[in-house]
Amino acid sequence: MDSIRNANEEELKKLEEKIADAEENLGESEVREAHLAKALYFIRIRDKEKALEQLKLTEGKTVAVGQKMDLVFYTLQLAFFFMDFDLVSKSIDKAKKLFEEGGGDWERKNRLNVYEGLYCMSTRNFKKAATLFLDSISTFTTYEIFPYETFIFYTVLTSIVTLDRVSLKQMVVDAPEILTVLGKIPFLSEFLNSLIECQYKAFFSAFAGMAEQIKVDHYLYPHFRFYMREVRTVGYSQFLESYKTVTVEAMAKAFGVSVDFIDQDLSRLSAGGNLQCKIDKVAGVVETNRPHAKYQATIKQGDFLLNRIQKLSRVIDREDFSRAFRDLEVS
């Protein structure tokens, strides 16, 4: 520890000398670069408070809006490392305002999408995270926070629990950028494709392997139990869409688990409102009571049409009344 502290002190002394030299002999841009170098060193040794202080000092010497956005990205890296999501949220809002001021090119905009997607994933907003990640697949350049393989890992995980089967096939399974990386990540290909192909036993088997990776992930491990529940809900929902009723035994066999496990798991998910089904314990069957998506869309459109007709009828009634009243006045 003493040797590390001494090395840090020596390096910081050199950086201070560069700042002093720049202020005495060089221009404003060189002064800014010297202060930025010191801020980056504090980030490197993970001295959060001093890094933020130095970044703020560097921002005061920065004129270009694009460079200010780069400073926000450095702040985001530090905030994500310490899981300071309040700072992450404020920094993302700040970056968006800078972009609106015309200081961001598309490369910075795409980087900001990845940072925001990571923030959404880390705060359980998986739907928005999946949307932002999918939009950034072909333009990913944010290697400073994680490699491309990790980005694809997050994209697939968030997409599975938020996209319907058709969208998942079009946007993820058939995406060439994802296909080039999918096989490099253990269990991910089996996890994704078995769900699409309705191979639920293989899906659960691959999910067990994926769970070990999620447990050790810096951003996903706090949501491990929540994500496990969401994935099981997706698998069960897709399976039950094909049946009005199905025996618990047949469902357990399809997923490669025991009857008791399916019975308990479905009971918890159904009671929590995650699954629209009920278990007939006496008959040993699961009954689905969720309306079909097309049926729900038809009902929604019908309600909208009825509301329009009611509004129109009230307008017509008022016009008829007004016309009758004018006729009465004339007579």
Automatic annotation (TrEMBL):
UniProt KW Protease keyword: no
PROSITE patterns: PCI
Residue span(s) of domain PCI: 125-293
Keywords: Coiled coil, Proteasome
GO cellular component, one term: proteasome complex
Coiled coil location: 1-32
PANTHER family per record: 26S PROTEASOME NON-ATPASE REGULATORY SUBUNIT 6, 26S PROTESOME SUBUNIT 6
Protein name: 26S proteasome non-ATPase regulatory subunit 6 homolog
Organism listed in the record: Camelina sativa
Gene: LOC104784610
